[in-house]
Amino acid sequence: MIRLIIMSDIVPFYHNRIEYGADYNPEQWSPHTQRKDIELMAQAGVSLVSLGIFSWDRLEPKPDHYSFKELIETMDILHEHSIRVDLATATASPPAWMATLFPDTLPVDKHGQQMSFGSRQQYSPSSQTFRKRTAQLVTHLARAVKDHPALCLWHVSNEYGCHVWESFDEESIAAFQAWLRSRYTTIDNLNNAWTTDFWSQRYNDFSQITAPAHQPTFVNPAQLMDWRRFCSDALLECYLHEKRILRTHTPTVPVTTNFMELFPWINYWSWAPHLDVLSEDSYPDPADAHSGMRAALSADLQRSLAGKKPWLLMEQVTKAVQWRTYNSPKRPGQFALWSLSRVARGARGILQFQWRQSQGGAETFHSGMVPHDMSASSWKDSCELGRTLQNLSSLAHPQLRPSPIAIILDWDNIWAAEALIGPSQWDHSQAVKRWYKTFFEAGYGVDFVRSSDNLDTYRVVIAPQLALLDSQCCERLEQAARRGAEVIVSAPAGIANRNCQAYLDGYTGPLKDALGVRVVEHWAATPHLDEPWLGDETTHPLVDRISSAVATPSFHEKTELVTDSNSPLARAARQALQCEQLPALQGNHWAEVVSIDADDVHILAVFAATGPTTDIAGSPALTRRRIRKGALWYCATDPQPVLRAIIAKLACTYAGCYTASAHLPRGVELIERDDARFYLNHSDSAQEILGVVGHDLISSTQCSGHLVIPPRSSAVIIPGNSQ
Ligand code: GAL
Q1: Is residue 364 very low, low, confident or very high in pLDDT (cuts 50, 70, 90)?
Q2: What is the phi-psi region of residue 325: left when phi exceeds 0, alpha when psi lies from -120 to 50, beta otherwise?
Q3: Which ligand 1 atom lies nearest to the CA of residue 321?
Q4: Helix 334-344 to helix 291-305 angle, to the nearest 10 degrees?
Q5: Residue 259 contacts residue 280 (beta carbons within 8 Å)
Q6: Is the Cβ atom of 523 under 6 angstroms away from ligand 1?
Q7: Residue 201 — left, alpha, or beta (φ > 0 → left; ψ -120 to 50 → alpha)?
Q8: What residues are annotated to the active site?
Q9: What confidence category does residue 1 fall into, taking pLDDT thresholds of 50, 70 and 90?
Q10: What one-character DSSP code corresponds to residue 549?
Q11: Is 448 strand, coil or helix?
Q12: Any atom of ligand 1 within 6 Å of the Cβ of 27
């Protein structure tokens, strides 16, 4: 009998608390340590653990010999102590017998080298044997635990694509051919889309197509784009394959898999609708000054992927990871501070990798909540955060405010950075992060949107480096501007369609009419020479009579823009930066020659007669065109931080977007939800904020107008005179 599952059949995962816990890998420890673990979990306030992520060899020690006794005993004990279980399907790390008995499951790298056993995630996403073996394991597992009261969430596999996002084995190539056949139907359609008439690449049949592995030189850009799309879909198929089985045996248990921040190899927009609970792993590097921002970006991304709904931080580290070359610890306070930054952005649970720090194996020196030595700060910090999250239980049902600002994030454009060959180094995901940083620093929240989304509710929309642009996205951008948004399109934009075929008659492609700006020529600067032709020898005017007579202005890192000292841009600069002197307005190593095709395009800045734009000095660099209630902007360079901040300031002013953070002390971030105000002090000094009246849930004190927040810590205020 076929049973239809409707969403409401699924048991709600979130309870009236903010979940707290970790990956729990008890296989590594003796029964005595496991008993101790349960006591310690109670001390730390653990409510949820992810169990069995790497336990395939325990659950199926030999092919078709299953053993769930130990697992169920652990689940029983956890349940007795009111700890819920996010149960992994354990398929992330196939056991040794898989590699020896079924070597066809092993992935093959770009160079045709088959990977071997001894690490983890060694499976080819398209291996039918692997799919069959996972199906069997998941079926037996689901049957064994389906009625267990601790089971509250399924955790399918682990970090799909983290280590192996593509495999070049024969089965994968056959699957790629089948994927192409269903996308293009006929080989002629594919030939047209891939422009195979160039370099004699025409195919007669789908069976001739191979993966873009090891080739003499550049691979066909459209082929590479399709390979990336296929690889993301192949992994999604692995997830859905397991999810279908789980639905059959446990129709009411929600299902998740853990995303990894802004991971480049998987199109999370296409995955997100298939997750009942959205979850992510996030590991900002404490040695990087942008890490507080990175945690925020990643959280806003998950909130956006979840449809502006709550989500779960499935993994972070208490102190330090072990997998970077250098692994610095979080500074005192940052573990809790960055956790609360996630809670403020909708996280309904904070979990760590892992509960108890390993004694051996690849992750021995990765911190755990329970450290090697109990007097290390991880343990104290873990208990403290557990208490803090309990104090925040009243915020367990977040009412998240929609942001007025949206940034378009598009995986095709991430992949295009690799697929398009020249004319410069672009990076859509870097541009996305950089624009996010601009708004984060200025105190604005940001939503991420896909290029096909309706943008009507936004007041400011950023389209950063959408080199591949389709007409649907252009319509969305234009419509948002008509409805009143300031839409900032930042170069390169619309130079090609989604098959990497250049737009003729203007590189702003389908957006050129609305922008009133047509890009006619690219003007790339060269920040580093690929191969200096004479090594490190430079020209000398005394002897190099010919070579020293011509300058090389394009050998430069930055473009420079000029604006009138009274222009709206200059005024915005003075306001944004609170300085009288206009700072240098600079872009990264990219410029374009544009033609202005409409009378009402306002030129806000032009390129300077220096560096790479020497030969196009005076050419428009930043434009704005009013369209009904809003405006479309075009920035013909990749703006540096100061220029981005000024553009953002001016756009927000035109759009009437203001932020309450503007007057906060340096280093303090304010996130307002309908139910609470999160003041996060990222700075190294205590900060004092006047005018705050309300109850601080963290310190359980009443604040009557004068809030002092210690360095790298937070206050969560419920506004009002009494609690
Ligand atoms: C994640 C992974 C965990 C653990 C962690 C260490 O990528 O899911 O299993 O390895 O990294 O930071």
Answers
A1: very high
A2: alpha
A3: 12
A4: 30
A5: yes
A6: no
A7: alpha
A8: 159, 315
A9: very low
A10: G
A11: strand
A12: no
CB of 513 closer than 6 A to ligand 1? no
Q: Which residues pair with 108 in a beta bridge?
A: 114
Instruction: Give Cα 529 distance to the centre of its chain.
Output: 31
Distance, CA 156 to ligand 1 centroid (Å)?
Answer: 15
* 84-88 vs 151-155, strand pairing mode: parallel
Taking only the tens place, the pLDDT of each residue in 16-67 is: 999 999 999 999 999 999 999 999 999 999 999 999 999 999 999 999 999 9
> What's the 491 CA to ligand 1 centre distance in angstroms?
36
Cα of 59 to ligand 1 centre, how many Å?
21
Instruction: Give 285-330 pLDDT, tens digit per residue.
Output: 999 999 999 999 999 999 999 998 999 999 999 999 999 999 999 9
Q: How many other C-beta atoms can be found within 10 angstroms of the C-beta atom of residue 244?
A: 12
pTM: 0.97
Tens of pLDDT, residues 145-194 = 999 999 999 999 999 999 999 999 999 999 999 999 999 999 999 999 99
Distances, alpha carbon 486 to alpha carbons 537, 561, 623, in Å: 48, 21, 12
Query: Is the CB of residue 71 less than 8 Å from the CB of residue 26?
Result: no
Sequence length of the chain is 723
Instruction: Check if the beta carbon of residue 628 is closer than 8 Å to that of residue 549.
Output: no
CA of 161 to the centre of ligand 1 (A): 12
Report residue 541 as tokens: 């005017």
Count of CA atoms in the C-beta half-sphere (13 A) of 284:
23
CB atoms within 10 A of CB 668: 20
Q: Whose CA is nearest to atom 9 of ligand 1?
A: 353
Cα separation, 266 vs 161, in Å, equals 7
Q: Which segments of 448-520 does DSSP mark as H helices, in order?
A: 471-482, 512-515
Instruction: Confirm or reject: Cβ of 524 under 6 Å from ligand 1.
Output: no
